[in-house]
Amino acid sequence: MNLKQLGSIAIVAGTAIGGGMLALPLATAALGTLPALLLLVGIWGTSVYTALLMLEINLKSGVGDNVHAITGKLLGPVGQMIQGGSFMSLLFALTMVYLMGGSSLLENRLLPLGIDLNKQAAVLIFTLVFGGIIAFGVSWIDKAARLLFSLMVALFVVVVVYLLPEVDLLLLSNVVAIDDVTANNFNRLFLTAIPIIFTSFGFHVCIASIVRYLEGDVVSLRKVLIIGSTLPLICYLLWLLVSVGTVGPAKVFSFNGELPLLVNALQDLANSNALKQIIDIFANLALITSFLGVTMSLFDYVAELIKASNDAAGRAKTWLLTFVPPLLCALFYPDGFFKVLGFAALPLVIMIMFLPVLMAIKQRQLQPQGYQVAGGNLGLGLITLAGIVIIIAQLYVALG
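Structure (tokenized):
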């Protein structure tokens, strides 16, 4: 496996492992171990299939085409408009999520140093520092992602090894650890977790960029997408075990979606300042790697949409259009991390499930040769059904 493949795996896995890593314990703490595991594995399987389906569509359309161009070829202007609206909504929402989550962790990180940032200043600093990397292009993001993801994995291993002996299996054996949770409340919590977990596997936004970067090598691309999507599953399973199993489901649930509270609770378990720093740096890297993957895809899409030149002026224009809208939202809605991450599932379903199914049906009629994901029409039907379930879950939670 060469360095470009390793870098691509880092981008795929790093795009998924971010806000999702930190939000999963908050979303599933009251469900119990078995329901949480079933949700994780089932949604992971869906994410792998949809990734390979999008790979099929990208390869048959032509290496170098982005999602916007592919949709226009297969579904025309109407499909392109729906796809464009979904894609932009998703990526702007996720960028906003990572700006809010990253800035809150930055505040928490600097406070022990005597630097008391307000939310607006933290958001601006996070955007300028880490968003600035995006302006340098995919090859630089590859290098940054490779370095940061490797460091994050190393720190993750340290955190897991340290916390595993502290896991209380009795806490994990409870179906629901909250005394006043009824059957109706449990159903609501279960449905709330579905879009959060689904969004946590939302690495698909970088597939078109990865196809172009690896020059359409189908063997390498399948390997990258399968390995890159399986790594988050393994990390999520271990993370749920050590976070919920040490802090306790009831306490995690009481944090009400606040990332710094979860990080602080885990740090309280550490018996040395070094371990506290490792936990804090790991949480920050989890967000940063995901932020880089998402904003790289948004930057590329905006550049294609406005037909921006690749010189300094063109990239600066693209950068402003990429970051200013989510930055403004993060500045004026600074406490919406958990809520926005859940709502990001709606455009994600349209973008990686409904539209790819329609495109695959049409494309297979026009181009029966070439790479095709297994499953045939049955697979496409099951993916459509899964998408409907996710949307119903999100609407039930939002309107219930």
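The longest helix spans residues 67-110. The CA atoms of residues 159 and 279 lie 6 Å apart.
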